[in-house]
Amino acid sequence: MNRLREALRSPRTDEGFSLVEVIVAMVIFGIVSTGILTSANIVIRMTADNRSRQVAVNLAEQQLDTDRGILDPFDVHNIPATSTDLPLTQRVSGRTYTITQATSLVSVDGSDITCGSSSTVSYRRITVKVDWTGRLPTTAPVQSDTILAPNGRINDASTGSIAVLVSGASGTGEQGVGVTVSPVSGGATALLSQPAATDVDGCTYAFGVTPGTYRVAISKPASKDQLQNSTPTTGQQNEPADLVVSAGGTSPLTFTYDQTATYPLTYAPGSGAVLPDKMATTFLSAGAPWSSDETAAPQNSIALFPYPSGYGVIAGQQADPNTRSLCAAEDPSAWGSAPGVRAGVRASAPGQTPGGTSPAVAVPMGVFTVTAPVLSLGNTYVTAVGQSSTDNGQPGCQNTETFTFSTYLAPGQTRTFALPYGTYRLYAGGLLGLTTSGIGSPAVKIANSLYNGPLSSITSGGLLTLDPRPAS
User: Fold this and answer.
1) Residue 199 exposed, middle or buried by CB count within 10 Å (0-12, 13-18, 19+)
2) Which is deepest, 62, 313, 423, 458, by most CB within 10 Å?
3) What is the Cα–Cα distance from 213 to 240, expressed in whole angstroms?
4) What is the top-level taxon of the source organism (predicted)?
């Protein structure tokens, strides 16, 4: 009995775990479980990535097999290029694979050369790269390359080659440009066939060319070069010289040529002024200045090479293919600041993408009104003869122009006219272009302060000054 009582009085030993012990155990279990799940997830992702990489390898090899099946290495191009090329993406097992392809020409010594290089072309190097969605950062895209050789020789030791590269305004190749090669002298002969149109790299070649001098012309609808020529041709003024082809060599030629941008023009907008019957408009850019036809009516829209920096626009002829001196006074920016006035500013046309259309360009001009005599016997025609003047800080005029207006004035009628900036002597007559009877103040008035600066004036002897400088 005593032993039983002692056993009943002894401390209990089945108290269990405390709350702290339970929490610690759960934390340890969570850490271990997270590590196991993370490791499992990494293993799953790596396994999937390896499968994706194998798919990418197969796609790259398929692309190279397609390229090898093309017998002409000049028919293999970069991808992406146009929507008609091979698919740029493929969907396999829920993942998207993107295929890109880079190509380069290879010279006889194995080095890569650019299209239009003077080095002799022997092969084409092709590099295919395949990337995919969900690729691990530690995994590189698949890349594979090969050398493509033609069935026959590209070059011959007794003949030469012509390499033509056509670049657009952005500096990238211009596709689909037609190229014509014609013999000029030095033993040159007509080609058996003309080169193909330029490829997506802007490149084309003529092989088997008899040594001699050749003329090369390029063309494409609605396109111009930096000199605003629609069909640039070697040997023309300001264009590259004719090509001399040597046996065993490649003669390179580069053009800058692109689809034109359209520039609508409004002259002295809002003034309602009558424009001269014939007047050029000048466009100044990063390249050579260019003027429209001075023997034609002012154009209300013109297509030009799409310089990214745009154009400065001037009413009047500031660019001359015959390199004669022109009238600086027609350019508003040539009029510097003077007491009471600020320097003049020419119109600006913003840069446009190839094929784009600019907002209408407001071209400033000097504006004035003329009132015909009430007692005149017939209609009155106005003629303006340019003068060279440096009064009040004018820039002068090296080669003056004469402007006529076929829009006449009835007896007592008043009309508003516009002219390029500068100084003119005005005449009125019953026939167009007569310069026998001068007209001046008070029949002539300076009109529309929006275009004429405060120093614009008209003398009683008919000397009209149209000054572009605004008041300071």
Assistant:
1) buried
2) 423
3) 13
4) Bacteria
